[in-house]
Design goal:
heterodimer; A: mainly beta; five-stranded mixed sheet; four-stranded antiparallel sheet; B: four-stranded antiparallel sheet; 48% strand
């Protein structure tokens, strides 16, 4: 299973764009990249998932370069409510046919007024 | 609400007691996962069900832990003879297996266990 490396913490201010970069040098061909958001005392919330290039939804954008060894989660115009821990994960279907997620420590994003 | 639900949300118990948690996955999701999360750490995989079959158990799941998913719908996680080290957030996630590699797991709100 590929490991990921992301900053332990980041600070931003309301209205700014936040980019969180994740390194996954050993990503496998069949691995997808998934980002989750977690608030205190809640379960992780799926944000976005992609395989290559750029993916955008109503919440965020995910940029994946051609070599797929890193990815960047982009949160446009953050608000105080975006203060949370963000997890980057890579994985896909394995020979066993399922995908147990391996979480790192995540990035603690603090948005200030 | 059609998301993953877990009950109870909080549980306080004394050391040595047994506890049981329940997870109701998203309807028609055939895969169900249990994770455990301690303070300041990311969730750790415990076990996985494909329909009613338990296909993998982590080494974290000692013999005091047992999980079931009768009829492939809801799941229960039981901890016998609880220890203080069992204090954690227990998370359930479900997904729908597709024909491609892509799979998205959706998490419930978790059950926070405190063992005194």
């Amino acid at each position: 299973l590929a490991k990921t490396t992301q900053p332990i913490s980041m600070d931003s201010y309301e209205g700014q764009e936040v980019n969180i970069t994740c390194s996954h040098n050993n990503i496998a061909t069949n691995d997808y990249i998934t980002w989750y958001q977690q608030f205190p005392s809640q379960g992780p919330r799926f944000i976005i998932q992609g395989y290559k290039t750029k993916v955008t939804n109503e919440v965020a954008s995910l940029f994946i370069p051609a070599d797929r060894k890193s990815s960047t989660l982009s949160l446009p115009r953050v608000s105080l409510s975006d203060t949370a821990v963000y997890y980057c994960l890579v994985g896909g279907m394995f020979s066993g046919g399922y995908n147990k997620l391996i979480f790192g420590a995540g990035t603690r994003l603090a948005v200030h007024p | 609400d059609t998301g993953v639900s877990q009950n109870p949300r909080h549980k306080i118990t004394k050391r040595g007691q047994n506890v049981t948690f329940r997870c109701d996955p998203i309807s028609e999701h055939n895969r169900l996962y249990w994770y455990r999360q301690t303070l300041g750490q990311g969730p750790e995989f415990l076990t996985y069900f494909q329909n009613e079959a338990q296909l993998e158990k982590s080494r974290l799941l000692s013999d005091r832990f047992s999980a079931e998913r009768p009829k492939g719908s809801f799941s229960t996680l039981e901890i016998q003879r609880t220890e203080q080290g069992d204090s954690a957030m227990y998370l359930c996630a479900s997904s729908l297996a597709g024909t491609k590699n892509q799979e998205t797991q959706y998490f419930g709100p978790g059950t926070r266990l405190l063992v005194l």
